[in-house]
Design brief:
Largest sheet: none
Radius of gyration: 28 Å
Shape: elongated
Strand content: under 5%
Number of strands: 0
Number of helices: 2
Distance between the termini: 85 Å
């Protein structure tokens, strides 16, 4: 019986600490969310363009090197 009491106490302690942590959460407002979303979108587009540019340059380089051998 002593072990079940300890387990119940641990469960209660866990849920109390979980509730305390959830009360610490702060949600961002609408303007902050929009700003962060726009920033993520811009970075994603720029990174996509950089990857496309590097891929095109490597493709031309490989095509050039393979055309020399023939």
């Amino acid at each position: 019986m002593a072990q079940t009491a300890k387990k119940d106490a641990k469960k209660d302690s866990f849920w109390k600490s979980m509730k305390t942590e959830f009360n610490k959460i702060t949600w961002s407002d609408k303007t902050e969310t929009v700003k962060e979303s726009v920033a993520v979108l811009c970075v994603s587009v720029v990174l996509g363009l950089v990857i496309t540019l590097l891929d095109t340059i490597m493709q031309y380089g490989i095509n050039f090197l393979t055309s020399i051998g023939m």
